[in-house]
Input
Amino acid sequence: MSPALGDYVGEERLTPVEKTLFGKYKLGKLLGYGAFAKVYHGWDMESKQSVAIKAINKHKTVTRGLTGHIKREIAAMRRLRHHNIVRLQEVLANQKKIYFVLEFAKGGELYSKVSKHRFSEDLSRRYFQQLISAVRYCHSRGVYHRDLKLENLLLDENWTLKVTDFGLSALTYTQDNRLFHTMCGTPAYVAPEILAKKGYDGAKVDIWSCGIILFVLNAGYLPFNDSNVIVMYRKICKGEYHVPRWMSSELKRFLSRLLDTNPQTRITIDEIINDPWFTIGYKDTKSCSDHFEIKDGDLKSLNAFDLISFSSGCNLSGLFGDNEGGEMFLSTASPEEIVGRVVGAAEEERLTVVVKKKWCVRFDGGQFRNFTLTVEVKRLTVDIMVVEVRWRECEGESSTEMWKGRLRPRLSGLIYRPDGPVAGE
Output
C-alpha cells in the first residue's frame, strides 16, 4: 500500500543529519508510511514553502521487485503539470534512499472526508469534475493511472482535489498503443476486463475507477464489496450493485454508463464532459491543464529537474545502482551540430559507430573495449535542446569514465546553463 499523505501516524525519531536533506529541505513529522516508503512533511529551506518528502528504501524496492514501479512513477509524474495533480518537484537520491519532493496537500485524503459522511450530489459532482479534468489531461499525455481510488485523491488547503500515486501507472507514446495486460489496481476498484486477463484499454479502466469513486462520494459505500474477494470479483464482472434511495435518476443513469461492464460501450472521457449531469456548473479548465510551453525567459526560474521534465523522455537507469547509467544536459546548439561534435569526439577516441539515425547515435568500444554509449538529442524549445546520454557498464573499461573523462570535456561550449553562461565541463 502506498503511503498516504493525509494520514498522520505520529513523529519518527530522526538523526540531526536526516533532519536536513541535501542542504535543501528540512524534514518534519511523519505523515504516512507504506511497505517500502515513508512520507514526511518538509520545508524548502530557501523558499520556506511546505513540501511532502517521500523517502523510498532502495533495498526493499529491489528485493521486492518494485524498482519498475518507482521508475514508472517518476516517468509519469514528469509528464504531468496540472492543478488537480500532485506535482513532483524534484527527485534526489543517495546510496540508501530515493526522495520524491512533492507538492504538499495540506487537506489530506479525500477518503478521510467521505468516510465520515457521504457527500451531497452537488459536492460529489464538483469533485468528480476535478477528477475527470485531471484524468483527461493524463490520458492526453499518454499516462494511464490504473490505481485511481479515494485513498489516492488528496486535498490542498483550498480543498482542491489532487491526484497522486502513479506507481502503477502505464505510459504510452501514441494513442493507438494503449492495450495493457498487467494485473493491477485495488480489488474494489478494478475493472472487469482486467479480471478477464485479456488486453485492456488503460483509458477505459481509469473511467471505471472514476465511476467507483463517484459512487462512493454520493453513496458513502463501495458499489462492489465483499469479505470474500472471489464473490466481489463475480459481482464486478456481472455489474451487480445497489444504488441508495437518495440518488437521483440522472446520477443513476450516468453511473450505469461509467460502470458498464463492456469496455467497448462504456462512456468515454469526451462523452463524460458532454453529459447533462456532468456539465452542471462545469467550467472547462483546458487553459489550465494544457501542455506547458516554456519560453527561454522562463528557464532561470526552473531547476534542472523541471527543465528535463519538459523533454519527451528520461533515462532513469542507475537510480538503483544497477549497471546502467546516464545523464542529461541542455544545449543551445542545433541537433546536427551536437551530434556532429559528439561523433567527432568519439572518432578521436577510436570508438565504433554502431547505430546512427536522426539526432541519435550509439557507440561501442570496438574490438578492445567492452562498453556501449548512446547520445540522443531532443528539442525542448525552439532554441533549447535536451541531450540525453545513456551507457551500460561492462567488465573492462568504464563507460562512465569514457563519457565523463574523455568525451564530455571535448564538448566545451555546447552545454547550456540557465543560471549562467554557456560552459563546457
About this structure: The domain at 20-103 is CATH 3.30.200.20 (Phosphorylase Kinase; domain 1). The chain has a mean pLDDT of 79. The two ends are 43 Å apart (CA to CA). The first helix runs from residue 58 to 63.
